[in-house]
Amino acid sequence: MEYDNELRGAMWKNDRKRPDKRDPDYTGNCQIGGVEFYVDSWISEPKAGGKKFLSLRFKEKQPKAQAPATAPAEPEPFIDDDVPF
After folding, report:
1. Which long-range contacts does 2-7 make (Cβ < 8 Å, 24+ apart)?
2. Interval 61-77: pLDDT, tens
């Protein structure tokens, strides 16, 4: 039986977060409409005070690029130097 991941996801604490950068606090993935997404999340606090919240960013996973197949070399054009014009 295949597990249905539709409208589900998971996130993990970002252990590679650099203190001087705006790296996400949590990273993960999810599936929406049959499309897989990366999910990044930051713990945010309103400037005017109030409760902390999570802001999210979704980015569609792209298929891994495969090495382009080498195209066959173009044949050199036929040049006949014996044509008198």
Report:
1. 5/30, 5/31, 6/31, 6/32, 6/33, 6/34, 7/31, 7/32
2. 998 877 666 766 777 77
